[in-house]
Amino acid sequence: MTDTRNNDTHAYLPQDIERDAQQFWDDSNAYVVTETSDKPKYFCLSMLPYPSGALHMGHVRNYTISDVISRFRRMKGYNVLQPMGWDAFGLPAENAAIKNNTAPAKWTYANIDYMRQQLKAMGFAIDWSREFATCTPEYYEHEQRMFVRLLKKGLAYRKNSTVNWDPIDQTVLANEQVIDGRGWRTGALVEKREIPQWFLKITDYAQDLLDGLDTLPGWPDAVKTMQRNWIGRSEGLQIQFNVEDASGNALTPLRVFTTRPDTLMGVTFVSIAGEHPLALQAAQTNPELNAFLEELRHGGVSEAELEMQEKRGMPTGLFAVHPVTGEKVPVFVANFVLMSYGTGAVMAVPGHDERDWEFAKKYNLPIKTVIAPSADADLSALDAQIQTKGATTEKGVLVNSGELDGMDFGQAFSALQTRFEEQGIGEKQINYRLRDWGVSRQRYWGCPIPVIYCDTCGAVPVPEDQLPVILPEDVAFSGAKSPIKSDPEWRKTTCPTCGGAAERETDTFDTFMESSWYYARYCSPGAAEQIDERAKYWTPIDQYIGGIEHAIMHLMYFRFYHKLFRDAGMLNSDEPATNLLCQGMVVADTFYRTNEDGSKDWFNPADVDVEVRDGVEVATLRTDGMPVQIGGTEKMSKSKNNGVDPHQMIQRYGADTVRMFSMFAAPPELSLEWNESGVDGMARFLKRLWREVSEFAAKGVVMKHDITEWTAEQKNLRRQLHQTIRKVDDDYTRRLSFNTAIAALMELFNALNKFKDDSEAGRALKQEVLEDLILMINPIAPHFALAAWQELGHDKQIIEDIAFPSVDENALVSDTAKMGVQVNGKLRATIEVPANAEKSAIEEAALADVNVQRALTGLTVQKVIVVPAKIVSIVAK
After folding, report:
1. Are 578 and 541 in contact (CB under 8 A)?
2. Residue 300: is its pLDDT beyond 80?
């Protein structure tokens, strides 16, 4: 290629090369795929992006990983699908709409248009014919239809659930919208309120989800462990405690679940949730308790919040009757017990549970020791330790437990199970920490839940022939109230059962609903149903890529939805993805100045100069030359202003350089630290490689040759070429270690650079090395590869349709072998001998080496051990 703007005819011009390549790919529909290929399929997918307005470097890294894998697999003979779409509903669009005084839909679609162009500028091999946005009726119609069918199957239902309620905005807040107990927008004290919400019965699939993890060897252990813990399968006993008031009057019994029935004799109180019926009943005649319950209504509703907050409680004046001893123990309302988890009641054993111990100490409640490490333990010393230092939580031998004394955990479990089952007050139970998926959101920008409310018929699903229920997009949005809640015309409808006046549901779906099945819609573009037979061809996903922060929510719901599809006969696999790669974050330095009020102004690294003065790094802001503080290296974010604009990097360096750096700077599963000098390094490498290709081509390419005899130097270069092919193939295929693949390609290029043989055979070998190097670099730098391939005399073609280089085993065979030589266990020399040398010749060469002779000075050789092609070991005294 000739640069008409530059006298250097061998200059690398990425902007021209990349524009030309992308136009060629578009014109030839290079990455549009069908299901009719006779090649094996390969579905490579990165989690779809939220259209926030612009790509960030995390996106660039994520989608480059996917693209490298996709391009490589196509070169290996697969029919590869790499699609793209937009996870377009959600709260951020509502917040942006308020900030920019626009409608969420308008903001979202504009962002999609801009981000699509950014993705195309990166040269990703995406099948854009399958693109969709989850906020369009064409997409969410199918989601609504599936919900209706799940409702009819009993897998969707409605019940009251506790939420964060903003009394001023009259809306539900997500946990992250509650700041220090107040609404993020209004500052009002947030209340806990029970409202009816829709749920999917994911708990029906708890064991299936748990068992399925054992069939996923290609998923990170960390993700599988998090999912196992979230599902939280536990075996225990559910036990009934009778309840009495202070006068001894019987009340509704409590049922508690415990995985440690062996500690039952150590119960000294029972804790219940503030919303428990017994708590509400007791509060009717106890103003102090009623005030405490009111205070609890303003607390958080998540388990994480409850775990972090100070443990507080108040006695109800009620008593639970111990099911074995008949002892009466006080019933406390505790702020760490959730009504939505289990039965809303917990038996408290402070001697053997840390949280209960803290609570008992705070409220001066008894602490009993009922588990010892062994039968002959010093009980008085153990009790003293527990009373003063804290609970012991390990299993052991029962003590101070009457007829259960001396039993271990298993024996006590069996004995109590038999006893309570015979008495009808308990039974063995398998519980799961996993709770049903609450899919209702009291927000506007989401998929409308397809339900109609009729005074006569109750909640009625919208008939399938009336779907979709369309969300109006041209709305005035203030954030104070959902436009569909405040629009009586939208709400007004007719009951499909009785024909009477009715209203639509104004809640919308949790956005995880859209992102739980999007992968299957990619497989069925334009299908009249949610998915069709084409989805069976493509699924399961062969390689899924996304952050580990999605381990519990998205990846759990994603698996659940796949099992729903399977059970409906729509898919024929048990799991949605065979392999999962969780890529690391992109991090960068942070710089700031602290204001008088303690707030911080953050400065972008591009605007800061850092130099070392007297051994200390000093940072100054370029605009005023004044010092700024050096913060930590943190994830790129708007809040810390340490992001790098991919668009600027592409304009400055070209997309291939950015792609190369994002793959070279760190293994994909680890954090990548942004370093512009590293980007410069990648740019220099591509420039050097381009010059090598261009200068070689200018002297005439060697398209064919029949050379079979090679000099020693030529053999060495061919050997390194095929060693590199073997390594890079393995790095791309098995290890997904793209940084080491690039390093190997750089080593090969350096070896080629030193190869000055301009003979006919030498030039033929150079052509071979350059062609294979270009093919190997293609998955990472595809624009470069397309142009370089043409420079080497080939027609313009889709490089992915050229087979990835294969290893010539004969080329790997060496005429010589390098062997280490040890003297008395210490490496003293390395010798090079003919590959077929006799042991005697190897021994002679080792003993003749100057360094070996120096090490043997004053010693007598006792033995020489030769391991051919590996090592020579000399024993001397």
Report:
1. yes
2. no
Q: What distances in angstroms separate CA 473 from CA 17, 137, 439, 873, one per listed residue? A: 41, 11, 21, 80
Cα 794 to Cα 531: distance, rounded to the nearest angstrom: 41
Q: 108-131: per-residue pLDDT in tens?
A: 999 999 999 999 999 999 999 999
Nearest residue to 560 via CA among 525, 522, 510, 513? 513
DSSP 5: T
Hey, how many other C-beta atoms are within 10 angstroms of the C-beta on 9?
12
The percent helix, strand, coil of the chain (3-state, each to 5) is: 40, 20, 40
Question: In whole angstroms, what is the distance from residue 261 CA to residue 238 CA?
Answer: 9
Instruction: Indicate if the alpha-carbon torsion angle 206, 208, 214, 216 is positive or negative.
Output: negative
pLDDT of residue 303: 61
| CB contact at 8 A, 230 and 556 | yes
Q: Are 63 and 124 in contact (CB under 8 A)?
A: yes
Dihedral sign for Cα atoms in the order 466, 468, 469, 472: negative
Residue 444 predicted with pLDDT over 60: yes
Containing H/E element for 25? Answer: helix 14-27
- 21's enclosing H/E stretch is helix 14-27
Q: Is the dihedral of CA 345, 348, 353, 359 positive or negative?
A: positive
**Residues 819, 847 contacting (CB under 8 angstroms):** no
Q: Taking CA 839 as the corner, what is the angle to CA 834 and CA 841, rounded to the nearest 5 degrees? A: 60
Distance between CA atoms of 73 and 67, rounded to whole angstroms?
10
Taking only the tens place, the pLDDT of each residue in 16-63 is 999 999 999 999 999 999 999 999 999 999 999 999 989 999 999 999
Distance between CA 130 and CA 78 in Å, rounded? Answer: 19
Percentage of the chain beyond pLDDT 90 is 83
pLDDT, tens digit, for every residue of 635-646? 998 889 999 999
Count of other CB atoms within 10 angstroms of residue 815:
11
| DSSP structure string for 518-538 | HHHHHTSTT-SSSS-THHHHH
Write the CA distances from 297 to 193, 279, 337, integer angstroms.
7, 13, 13
- DSSP string for residues in 687-708: HHHHHHHHHHHHT---------
Q: What is the pLDDT of residue 174?
A: 67
Instruction: Count CA atoms within 13 Å of residue 298 on its CB side.
Output: 14
Which single residue is written with the structure tokens 């697999």?
73
- Tokens 């109006």 found at: 472
β-bridge mates for residue 829, sequence order? 821
How many angstroms separate the CA atoms of 128 and 111, rounded? 17
CA distances from 109 to 100, 103, 113, 638, 789 (A): 14, 10, 6, 21, 38
8-state DSSP, 454: E
* CA dist list (Å): 434 to 258, 437, 592: 16, 9, 42
Q: How confident is the model at residue 480 (pLDDT cuts 50, 70, 90)?
A: low
Token pair of 67 as six digits: 């693209």
Q: Which amino acid is at 458?
A: G
* Contact status, residue 452 vs residue 505, Cβ threshold 8 Å: yes
Q: What is the DSSP string of 772-839?
A: HHHHHHTTTSHHHHHHHHHHTTPPP--GGGSPPP---HHHH--SEEEEEEEETTEEEEEEEEETT--H
Residue 1 pLDDT level (bands cut at 50, 70, 90): very low
What sections of 516-609 are H helices per DSSP? 518-522, 534-538, 554-567
| Cα–Cα distance for residue pair 167/783, rounded to 1 Å | 56
* Nearest of 131, 130, 100 to residue 113 by alpha carbon: 131
Tens of pLDDT, residue by residue over 207-216, are 999 999 999 9
